[in-house]
Amino acid sequence: MNTSTHEVLTLAGFVPQQELSVRKIMTTKENGIQYALQISEDKESVLYQVDGDIITTGDKCDKLVLVKLSSEPEKWAEIFVELKGKDVGHALTQLIETIKQPIFKHQTNEVKRARVVATSFPANKSNPDIERKKIVLLRLGFEYKGLKPKQFDLI
User: Fold this and answer.
1) Strands 33-38 and 25-30
2) What is the CA radius of gyration of the chain?
3) DSSP tag of 150
4) How far apart are CA 51 and CA 48, in angstroms?
5) pLDDT digits (tens, 9 = 90+) for 116-148
6) DSSP, res 64
7) For labelling alongside 29, which of 16, 18, 114, 141 has CA 20 to 30 A away?
């Protein structure tokens, strides 16, 4: 039995963009948009490219960050990241479709997060499409947060 999403991905032949290692800060950037995760304590983390590597067709997010929270029992944080300019609605669709993929489902994923990093977010918070998609993420067990580029996420 595979012990984690990281092991499942490794055994499937996917090579991380940033190898599993202890780091205080993990950053990833695409088209000038940067996601930064500040990691407390001495935890191992790994970064995978989802778009074009793990998933090659349909809607998919850009990155997957896995942070090892403990070894015994093995517990991980799973953070799906979409780096976007402005289209937050489409970013949420990409996150939802990625999260639904069976390869990412594993019982060791204790903390589940979905992040959109965008240069601008809709000013009107009552956008029904976006609100519906946030509810879908919650029903899938994921905490959603929108971040500005270079704004730190914490774990």
Assistant:
1) antiparallel
2) 15
3) T
4) 9
5) 999 988 776 678 899 999 999 999 999 999 999
6) E
7) 141
